[in-house]
Amino acid sequence: MSTLRTDTLVDKDHDADSIDVSELESGSAKAWVSFTGEGTVTINNDFNVNNIGDNGTGDYSINFSTNFANADYVFTGTFDDSWGSGSSCPHVMPQGNQGNTQNGNVCRIYTKDTQNGAVDARRAYVSFIGSQ
After folding, report:
1. Residue 17 placed within a domain
2. What pTM does this model have?
């Protein structure tokens, strides 16, 4: 295995397109997951996700393989629902107050429809960025 050690990456044609290596590390997704939330929760693909707990309709606990340094990471996500009527606008949001549902090793989320009702995700996609 080879090791490349550098502080700055520079585009081969343009010095103006350089970036400090620390920016790449801090701005990269440290965990992401694609999962099926209907019936038995199934992870379809992931990076740094150990498992997902099913806490009820549209209520999931995503457990990380490598913990974040604290609860100050951010996440974003979306999901497909099974309504099929086109009347829903699915969104992923923190479950409850951040202080009691998000910590360094787990993030608890809801998948909700336009009427703000919890619904099981046919397929959900969530990514996480922060310090580990």
Report:
1. no
2. 0.77
